[in-house]
Amino acid sequence: MTNLPMPGPPPEPFLSDPRPVVLVFRAPVFNASETFVRAQAAGLVRYQPLVVGREAKGHVPPGLAGRVLIRPDVERLRAFRPVLVHAHFATDGLGALPLAAALGVPLVTTLHGYDVHRSRAALLGSGRLSWVRYALFQRRLQARGDLFLAVSNALRRRAIAQGFPAERTFTHYNGVDLRRFRPGAGGDGVTILHVGRLVEKKGTAVLLRAFARIRTAHPRARLAIVGDGPLRPQLERLAGELALNRSVTFWGALNSDEVAAQMRQVALLAAPSLTARDGDAEGLPQTIIEAMASGLPVVASDHSGNPEAVEDQQTGFLIPEQDSEALAARLDLLLDSAATRTAMGRAARQLVEARFDLARQTARLEALYDGLRGQMRS
């Protein structure tokens, strides 16, 4: 990936696009797991995105081709006449404050999870400059940021308790593309899918232990783990210790289309999220919404924003955090009953259509942009 040419007027596609420009700020462009950031930016309708970052990591979807700048100076960005900056994660919100101020535009920051939940001590001890700066100066963002969007009601409550201003902090659910994530032909009836970065808060170890409990009753059952991360070697060892090597597959990271294809072929999704030892926790995992859009029942922990999507005994089941026995019982029930899977999967799709449709959520986001711009003009 290369920078757009400098200096000069904005290049295509901006010259022929009359929509106002939103600078979407994310320091790494993009981490593989951050499908929700890419989808939201590419899905804008009445506004057009210009992605600005500090490090090119790839994973740029076709909808954002030609719309990425890495480390541009402020003068280059002025040529695009942006109307606001939208940063993702509070750490990047703090980093984007000087940019928004220099451009004279408002700053929107989406709060996703770790940026609100992870403890100050963990941030300071992380060794990551942006995290350390945020631990030291988060009050600056809270005071100067114009609008904060939490991805769940639970995360909003937590953010306000940490000092984010209630009058400027709202819930805005991430949306899902209902055309990409759609029900398949009923799945294979035996495969449990687990998707996420392999870190403590995803609860993958809890899932492996639960899966070991049901192997006798369901000898044909399979567990497909999609994602990569620092805990992968440890989790692969645990699968071996539990004698699960022949029934568990670690797929590594897959792109969004590949994940969608997996979801059309499996029986259900397991998302046993938990609060990590350093305080890290979810906002509302995008994978839960994608699975429900795909007509899958979800077994998830009663954690953070999960209950805002998974309605217990309606669209799936909620279990206590770190309870492998309860998780095993619910997995067993769903593998036993195709009728239950079908009914819950149908209800899950209906809930996503009503609450998490990307097109509808994009319209709501752009209405928030409109309101913020109106406030700045008055």
Q: How would you describe this protein?
A:
The structure is a single chain. By secondary structure, this protein is α/β, with parallel strands linked by helices. It folds into 2 domains: 21-175 and 357-377, 3-Layer(aba) Sandwich (Rossmann fold); 191-355, 3-Layer(aba) Sandwich (Rossmann fold), CATH 3.40.50. Helix content is 39%, strand content 17%. The chain is built from 14 helices and 15 strands. It has helices spanning 35-42, 74-78, 90-103, 114-117, 120-124, 129-144, 153-161, 204-214, 232-241, 256-263, 286-293, 324-336, 338-355, 358-377, and strands spanning 21-25, 28-29, 48-53, 55-56, 68-70, 82-88, 107-111, 147-150, 169-171, 191-195, 222-226, 248-252, 268-271, 298-301, 316-319. The strands form 3 sheets. Strands 5-3-1-6-7-8-9 form a 7-stranded parallel beta sheet, with helices on both faces. It has a 6-stranded parallel beta sheet with strand order 12-11-10-13-14-15, sandwiched between helices. Strands 2-4 form a two-stranded parallel sheet. Helix 3 (90-103) links the parallel strand 6 and strand 7 (107-111). Helix 3 (90-103) crosses helix 6 and helix 8 (204-214) crosses helix 12 (324-336). The longest helix is centred in the C-terminal third of the chain and has 20 residues, at 358-377. It starts with 20 loop residues before the first strand and ends with a helix. The relative contact order is 0.12. Residues 1-7 have low confidence and may be disordered.
